[in-house]
Every structure is written in C-alpha cells, then in structure tokens.
Amino acid sequence: MTKAGKSLWLLFCVALIVLALAAPSFAADTATGQKINYDEDTTIHWLPNPNDSSERIILYCMNNTLHWPHSTSTLPDVPEYVEGYLTEKDFDSADEYRECIQQLEAILYAGYPYNGLHLYEIVSKGHQITEAEFNELLRAPDVIRSDFPDSIGNTQFTYANYEENMDRIQKFMGEVLALAKGGTTASGLTHGQITALPFYKAMNCISMSVGTASPLQWYDNIYSKGYFVTEKQAYTATKDAVWNLLYKYKIADNDLSDITSGELAETLVKEASSARLLQEKPSSDKVSVTGDAVFSYNPQDGKWHTGTLTVNEPATYRGTYTLDLPDGVTVENSSSGNTVTAGTSFALVSDKEITGTKEISLKSDSLVWIDELYQYSPARDVVASDGKRFQHMVGADIRRASVTTAFTVKTGEEGSLSVSKKVEGEDNPSGEFRFTVELLNQKISGKYGDLTFKIDDNSGNSTASFTLKSGESKTALHLPAGTKYKVTEAENEKYTSSAKNAEGTITAGQKSDVEFTNTRKYHDLTVSKVLSEPGDQKDREFTFVITLKNSDGNPVTETFNYEGETVSGQDEGVTAPKNGTLEFRDGSAEITLSHGQAIRLKDLPTGSLYTVEEKESEGYTPRYNGSKEAASGTLSKDAEVSVVNSAGTDPGKAEGKDDPGKNESGSDNGGKTAKKTSQKSGSSNPDTGDASGLVLWIAVLAGAGAGAAVLIRRKLSCPTDM
What we know:
It comes from Hornefia porci. The chain is an alpha+beta fold. It has 11 helices and 36 strands. The strands form 7 sheets. Strands 1, 2, 3, 4, 8, 9, 11, 12, 13, 14, 15 and 16 form a 12-stranded mixed sheet that branches. A 6-stranded antiparallel sheet has the order 19-20-21-18-23-25, with no helix packed on it. Strands 30-29-32-27-36-34 form a 6-stranded mixed sheet, with no helix packed on it.
C-alpha cells in the first residue's frame, strides 16, 4: 500500500472511532422523546405508565447538582426525555450495578407514594403518638414470638401492662443487642432487620423510659418525625434517599453525602439494602387464615372468644387486611378496628353465642408490587445559561393490588350441668349442703352460669364448690361438650345421701341433671302433756312409758338425749323439764311430765318403731293425738305425741261435748304431730282427781243418819201429854 493509501486508511479509521463515540449522543438527540410532566401543587414529576396509560409513574431526579426537568421563567428550554441512563459500565462491577439498581427499586417501592414496606404513615400535620397507636406497635409479629420465646413468647404487651413486663422487655432488648456483633435469629433475622420493626421501636421506648419520660414521649422524640409524616415530607425523604444512594455509588453530579431531611430518608436507604420486594401481581390463592376459629365462652368477660388466628401469605405481600365481621364480633384487644396484619396473631370476640357457622371474609387493598424500573435521560444535550445540564430521572411501574380470602367460624359445642337438692323426712328443712363439681379433663376457670371454677393445684382439674338447700339447684352453663364431670356431696352426719347421674359427660346442646336426695339419719320424738282442766293439779306428775325398737323390730338398748320444753298456749306458770338423758333398757324407758311440759327426744334412728303410753292415773282418761289408743309409729320424720288428760268419764261420750282428745280442728291425728295448744273439757265441773271429797260426803250422810235415829228413839220413850 502506498503512503497516500495508508494515510487515507488511517483517516477512515479515525472517522469510524469518532462516529462510534458520538453514537449515544446522536441517538439521544434523534430518538423520539416525551415531555416530563410536572405538578406545581405537589412539585412531583411524572410520566404515563408505559404498561397502563391510566396510571402514573412518579419520577425522582438522579443528579442533585443538575437542573429539574420542568420549565421556569429563567429556564424555559427543557429537553424531552428518552429511556436509558445507568448501565454496568457506570460501575466497578456487574454486581455493584445490580446492587444499586435493586436498592433504587427498593427506595421507590418503600417510598412515596407506595409505602410498600409500611415504613411511615401519612398525617396532615405534626402528630404525637396516642396510646392506642402505641398498642398497635406492640403487637409482636409471629416471627419475633418464635425467635424470642423466653422474652416475648405468647406475652401480650400493652401500654397499660408494660411496667409489669419490664423484665421481659429488658431481656428482649439485651438479646437484640447481642445480634449487633453479627449473627441472626433462628428464622434468619439480622440486628438491622429487627431494629427497623415498629415493634422493636416501641419496646426500645419502653426500655428507655425507666425513671425518665414516658414511652410515648420517647417515641415522639425519637421516631415520630420519621414515621408520622406529611405527603410532602414523604416525597422529600424519598428524593433525598435516591440522591444519597447514588452518591454512595459515585454516580456523577451527586453530592448529597449527608441526609438532613429527616429520619425517614435514612430509614429508606437502610431498608433498601436488604428489602425483598414483591415482583409479581399478588394472588388471592396464596392467602389463607389458619388457627382455632372456634368460639368458646370466656367467663372473664362473659363473651365468646376464638383461639389464635393468623393470616398467612408470602413474606413479600406485607398485607393489612380488613375483616367483614358479623354484628357483635370484633378483633380482640385491637385499637385499629377490624384490621389485622399478616404474620401477627389475632383473635375474635363475640358479644353473643354464634349459632351455626359464619363465613368471615377479609380483604387487603394495599398490596404493592413492582414490575419494572425505568430510567430517563434528556433526549438532547441541553446546557443552561449557568452551564448546568438537566437531571436524569428514575421511576418504576409500581402498582397496588387487592387480595381476598375467607374462613369459617362457629361456636364450640356446649352443654350445661345442673345440680339439685331435695331433703326427705323434714317438713321445713333449712340446712345447707356442700357440693363439689369436678371437671376431669378440662382446665377452665371463672364463672360459668351459677358456678365459679378454679384449677385445683393438686389434681389439675377444674373444680367448683357451692352449697344448696332443699329445693334449690345451681347450673353451670357453656361447658365444652365432651367434658367429663363428677359431682360429690360433703358428708353430713345427720343425713344419708343418694345421687342420680352424679358422674357423666357433658353432651352438646343438652343439660345434664344431677339430683341429690338426702334423708335424715335421725329424727326427734316429742312427748307432751296437757290437762284439759288443770285446776290445782298443774304440778301433778304423770308417768309415760316409751318403747323403742330399731328398724328390724329389735328392742333398743341405748341412751338418748332430750330437751325440756313447754307446750305452746299451756305454759303459763309452767317450768320446762331440765335437759337430760333417757336410758332405754330392752326397748323401754319411763319419764314423768306434768301439765304443760314436754320433752324432745333427740336423734332417734330413722325407721325406729316407737310407742308412747301413759300409766293409768285414777280419775283421768288420756287421749294420744286425739286417740284413745297408745300412740305408735315409725320415725320417717320428726314426730310428736300430744297426750291430753280429761277428768272423769270419757268426754268423747258426753252428748254435745267436744272431744278433748282431738285437736282444735276436731281431726284425729293418730301418730302424727299434734298442735301444741290448750285443750278444753266439755264438763263444767272439773274432777280434781282427789277422793277426799267422797269421804267427806259419806261422813256427812252417816252423821245425819245417826242424828235422826237419836231423835226417833227419844220420841218413842217420852209419855204422851194428852
């Protein structure tokens, strides 16, 4: 090749090199661009979403030292923009490029307006956290409960109980601090991931409040400005986070080395380094509710509670769900109404018993997912009068999606248990009897209907103790079906007890009736004495023979106590016999009583056969409860023998006269208890019971006869005076 040829060849190669170097700028200058839209009210830049023109892509600037891509009075010439900016060539390695792009996506995903990681809450103005909001922060995620079983576990933390749980809180803070040196929890959480959680922030405020300000004040001082933000503050924090990230990766025209706009921007940068994003449209098929959806009666508040429930979803969903609840059903211990967060356990509470089954649906409208990142550069190289160019822009196709699911709740099968008491052998029983209900395979405590249960320290079973009188009953309500029960009555020395259905199993929808019948082991026998017309014979004593046989008919040889009494209505001037004992020998014993006196023979065995008879008293005829026959009977309850004596002949045979052996109603009581009232004789001339009157009349008659004989004799012996 000639020298001229070589020169031409060299010139051609240089031209190719120049063209190659100028190609990107040429393409940008000639590509079809689009104008960046600018909202003057919000100062936000945006472009229509390439995948859905009805949606916007919010744009953030990528070079804080360059001009914004909107026209001003001093900067009217703003270029249009085309896609493209950073590539692997702008970084030291392909890995570094991927890291930067992933973190850019995460900042946009978590920042304004999408809040995909729930790092902030939009408020209209400055906000101080409330106790209710603080309680929501204290709802520990399930992963924290499982990773810290000793300090957190199943404990429910609230602002009201934080002081009593301070030891657990301090232990948790120490466990988290130990992770700062490296390492992860059992589930793989790092120190940074834990400290970014709202739960940790609330616990940290409680930990620092000891002896100082309240946890709420600490939260306002440390976190509120980074969590409760206005829309403008959220936008500014996102913008600063983008600039700060690109500065760290040494992207040209960025000098924001320190963030001064607030804690949220710092949080966005920090979270972007490890956040996992939802990169596909969420599906309802991947959401479910698991746990114990059966309502059980809770005696502490008289309401029905489910067991623990959890919304399950992929970790990247981060859903907050609104439940469509039946009337009277709420989320237990929730200050956020009927919303729950996936991964955080909850329970439902109902004011009334749920009948049948109910389907509860829940929906989340806040699931955020990212499809694609977009970068934009000026379509032509425009240099402003101050020598500055225009910023590159970044945005992403980030959307919100809804998912729904449902689950079924019902009330657990329940039954009831009723215990009743009946006493036989007493007319008006008033004694109390003590019972114990033991639930053999249940650990429940509190008030269930009429009964209050507690867990026995020794057996571990649930027990309830109570007393009943005859005719009373008590019922335990809302007992779980299948519960085995045992009812026992405390031993009572005065009664024998029989029971029906004292052991069994609670049946769903039914009442188990347990009936206890008590029969007196012993009864009292009262013997009283009344003279129908006592006159001056009130103190005269009458002897009674009482015979006693046991229920087998064998004579009783035993000593029994008795109490002395007086007869109602006949007690004027009457002294009750002193209390004492009566000894039966070969089934017989004697005792003396005078008018208006009585004895109550105590505690004779039930079924004893008795006879009461008064020894013969001259001039008196006894009636036994209105009968001429000696009183006898079998003791099935307390008995009384009222003996009424009348003078002379049997007043029951006197025409038109009342029978003093009958009670005031005229009925014959036989061996039954007689009313202790005064008995009146039909005779107006009382027989005093004293024979000296008859002797006097005989003497008078004898004297009169003797006098008459003397007079006759004298008459016959005197001469006649004619």
